[in-house]
Amino acid sequence: MRFLAAFTLTPILCFAFQDLGSKYGEWDWLTTGYAVWPMMIGPVLMLLLFVRNRELIRAPRRGANFSQTIKIVSCIFVLPNVFATIGYSLLAVIPLLSCLTILVADWQLKKQARA
Question: What angle (nearest 5°) sits at the alpha carbon of residue 86, between those of residues 107 and 14?
């Protein structure tokens, strides 16, 4: 859960610092890429964490909290990555697919665990 929190909070904090620093601090080095790249790297790292801990999702009593949290975070990251794909770089398709993979794979793993 600590890694998931770090992968979630880092992009949010980078966006906050980029917005405040470029607007009020007149820091030219805080470019859009400073905020967009962590938003694109976070879902890929979450996918690796998901694959590594997929046994928690198969055991609903042990991993219910992890499963719900990673699904919520993936849903939160879908929309910004759509905007990043359109406005910044086509490389943002990779994290977008990572988020969608987490959502679909979680559903499939839970479906298999019930059967």
Answer: 80
What predicted TM-score, i.e. pTM, was given to this entire model? 0.80
Q: What local confidence, expressed as pLDDT, does residue 23 receive?
A: 64
Report residue 108 as tokens. 């499939």
If DSSP codes are grouped into helix, strand and coil, which group holds residue 53?
coil
Distances (CA, A) of 90 to 4, 35, 40, 94: 25, 16, 11, 8
Give the whole-angstrom CA distance, residue 34 versus residue 37. 6
Give me the helices (H) in the chain, please: 2-23, 32-52, 54-58, 60-87, 93-114
pLDDT in tens, 8-23: 888 888 877 777 766 6
Q: Hey, is 31 helix, strand or coil?
A: coil
